[in-house]
Amino acid sequence: MSEYFKGIGNISYEGSKSDNPLSYKYYNPEEVVAGKTMRDHFKFGLSYWHTLCAEGVDMFGEGTADKSFGAACAMDHAKHKVHACFELLGKMDIDYFCFHDRDVAPEGATLAESNKNLDIIVDEIEGAMKQSGKKLLWGTANLFSNKRFVHGAGTAPNADVFAYAAAQIKKALEVTVRLGGTGYTFWGGREGYETLLNTKMGFELDNMARLMHMAVEYGRKIGFTGDFYIEPKPKEPMKHQYDFDAATAHAFLQKYGLMGDFKLNIEANHATLAGHSFQHELMYARENGLLGSIDANTGDLLLGWDTDQFPTSIYEAAFCMLEVLKAGGFTTGGLNFDAKARRGSFDPEDIFLSYISGIDAYALGLKIAAKIIEDGRIDKFVEDRYASYKTGIGADIVSGKVGFVELEKYAIEMGEVATNKSGRQEYLESLLNQIIIG
Ligand code: XUL
Ligand code: CO
Asked: Using omega within 30 degrees of 0 as the cis cutoff, is the peptide bond preceding 157 cis?
């Protein structure tokens, strides 16, 4: 089999003193942190679409990175991409990958032909997985690129489009089950609106739920035991997307009776587009038992779109891993890098360098998160902040023993609130730095 990334060997842990750019400085897969190896904590994933498909095209310019892999035709290209993918997974020591149906195999002239193309490439993927031991984290269907989805997929005003989307999800689920994927993701890139003048919002949301119920019913029937995920994103490509953020997706799942089968796939840059921090979305998901999987990346705070950059902020990585640790770790999910090298970083080597930057940042983030928990001062501060609910009137509020009448009596007798304590934000921020640096 041909080697696609010649001259680049296996990326291994060389420690923080190494000046070899093609090595991990902090990610030591077998090192135990907080009771588990780093490998098991992260379950790092590679995004097929960015890594094997994205060539650096933007709104104003053509591709800059050559990802043709010497292919002669579309199906040949698809096969080369499979083997390039597994070479990358092997060389970078990444255990998982994620894909959309159309990332791996080209769309045919008909749905039947698209399905046939997919089967041929999935055979190839299955063979490579058996040989390498690499695993599928989650699969999904691309229900946004083709122009048939211009007005949505499950939320399209045209029932034929709904039917097409359902058929595509059916196949993508079959493929996910066949490859042993533990997650199936719904990212509703076109499930939203451009103007409310032509939109029946309630009906569209009902239909989106109908599509998801069908997916659950069929998925369970064919042996899918993993989690379905909603990946919230507030906008882009649509002006408004229904899965706006974690709380909106939670309300949708509750209203339509989908809790239990669904969790959330939280993406960093989607959180910031929704006006939240990444940690906010993760904490919301964790507190509601919905933290399923993560698309790690970062945006640029000076830009208002989804730049899908590799994450390098150790603060952000630490806050993320703090939530993951507090959730008890991933079950079905993992940490997929929904990220790509910048358009100006077009050498094949940049694929390796960008993954190394993200993986090392998260290795540091994990260590910091474990230190924060072990140190305990921040958690203790937070516990103490709510101590008034442990005894007296606070305990009575929590246990439901008192209502408005009793609270009015209490407040009148109390007079004025005597003791509000400082929130100590600046102290906590400097304590955090102290914990990080030691
Ligand atoms: C788009 C995005 C998607 C999903 C999968 O912003 O994040 O790539 O992760 O459809
Ligand atoms: Co994503």
From this structure: no
Q: For the segment 272-307, what is each residue's pLDDT rounded down to a tens digit?
A: 999 999 999 999 999 999 999 999 999 998 999 999
Separation of CA 268 and ligand 1 centre (Å): 11
Does residue 103 carry a catalytic annotation? yes
Q: Strand 183-186 relative to strand 96-100: parallel, antiparallel, unpaired?
A: unpaired
- Calpha distance 424→269 (Å, rounded): 29
Q: What is the pLDDT of residue 1?
A: 66
CA of 295 to the centre of ligand 2 (A): 5
For residue 118, give the H/E element and its range: helix 111-132
Q: Which of 233, 235, 264, 307 to mutate to test the pocket of ligand 1 (most atoms within 8 A of CB)?
A: 233
Q: Residue 42 in contact with residue 26, Cβ under 8 Å?
A: no
Q: Which atom number of ligand 1 is nearest to the Cα of residue 142?
A: 10
What's the mean pLDDT in 190-213?
98
Q: Annotate 321-375 with DSSP letters as a single string.
A: HHHHHHTTS-SS--EEE-----TT--SHHHHHHHHHHHHHHHHHHHHHHHHHHHH
Of 100, 250, 270, 280, the active-site residue reads: 100
**What is each CA distance from 378 to 238, 369, 371, 432, in whole angstroms?**
40, 11, 11, 8
**Above 70 in pLDDT, residue 7?**
yes
* Active-site residue (options: 95, 101, 103, 308): 103
Q: In this predicted model, what pLDDT tens digit does every residue of 128-157 receive, in sequence order?
A: 999 999 999 999 999 999 999 999 999 999
Helix (H, G, I), strand (E, B) or coil at 217: helix
pLDDT tens digits, 8-56: 999 999 999 999 999 999 999 999 999 999 999 999 999 999 999 999 9
Query: Model-level pTM?
Result: 0.98
User: 406 — phi, psi (to 5°)?
Assistant: -65, -35
Are 92 and 29 in contact by the 8 Å Cβ rule? The answer is: no
Burial status of residue 412 (CB atoms within 10 A of its CB: 0-12, 13-18, 19 or more): exposed
In order, the DSSP letters of 147-208 are GGGTT-STT-SSHHHHHHHHHHHHHHHHHHHHTT-SEEEE--TTSEES-GGG--HHHHHHHH
Reply yes or no on whether 350 is catalytic: no
Is residue 101 a contact partner of residue 138, using CB atoms and an 8 Å limit? no
Chain-wide mean pLDDT for the chain? 98
What digits encode the pLDDT tens for the residues 221-277? Answer: 999 999 999 999 999 999 999 999 999 999 999 999 999 999 999 999 999 999 999
Contacts of 218 (CB under 8 A, 6+ apart): 170, 173
